[in-house]
Amino acid sequence: MLEIKNLHASVEDKEILKGIDLKVNAGEVHAIMGPNGSGKSTLAEVIAGQEEFEVGEGNILLEGEDLEELSPEERAHKGVFLSFQYPVEIPGVSVTNFMKTAINESRKAQGLEDMPANEMLKKIREKSEMLEIDRKFLSRSLNEGFSGGEKKRNEIFQMAMMEPKLAILDETDSGLDIDALRIVANGVNKLRSKDNAIIVITHYQRLLEYIVPDFVHVLYNGKIVKSGTKDLALELEEKGYDWLKEETAV
């Protein structure tokens, strides 16, 4: 689904990613952990095509297709979805209208007609019920006045509606209480399938008790320095990152 080869990326001449190699197959969930400033969010944004980052060398392939020349919108139409750490508020645009526009733009890019209104409403109803979202929530302006938990749940609702091939969840757990975390994680688990892949970026092992990854990677100083199973996340929770820093410095 996703293959990253020797990816180097910088912002304002400061190199942040220093040679990332990563392969994510369809049906897999990969967790990326690491201390602050290690490049986790940068990696997510570079995959999604955020234009402030300059890719010096390396490739990002989605199902074998190089994404380098594609804009963020084109990457979204190909099936890349990024759930933001800090979702922005868009006053005057309802959650429902935002989703209708996003889905129909994606369909247009694939040469399809707009989704019929009755089909769209059915899909909105199904996905909102699955994520325990109140129907009144859908008529509110996007993220305006939403609590942290509502914003994150809304991001997962967007993911459910868009049905991406590759979903990247950037610190979806930050600021969530245990109930909101459970609902968001349950939503993600229901969306896991053999046809998609999910990358979860997190600081804490807590989220990985709910969304169990197939692989855990530790990003430190712009490189993946260790990979393993869920046990690696437990080890990090117990020991912190200092032992890895020492290991990497040797």
UniProtKB/TrEMBL annotation:
Keywords recorded for this protein, A-Z: ATP-binding, Nucleotide-binding
Domain of life: Bacteria
SMART domains xrefs: AAA (SM00382)
Domain ABC transporter: residue ranges: 2-246
GO MF: ATP binding; ATP hydrolysis activity
Pfam family, one: ABC_tran
Family: Belongs to the ABC transporter superfamily. Ycf16 family.
NCBIfam families (UniProt xref): sufC (TIGR01978)
Name the UniProt record assigns to this protein: Fe-S cluster assembly ATPase SufC
Protein source organism: Flagellimonas lutimaris
Gene that this polypeptide is encoded by: sufC
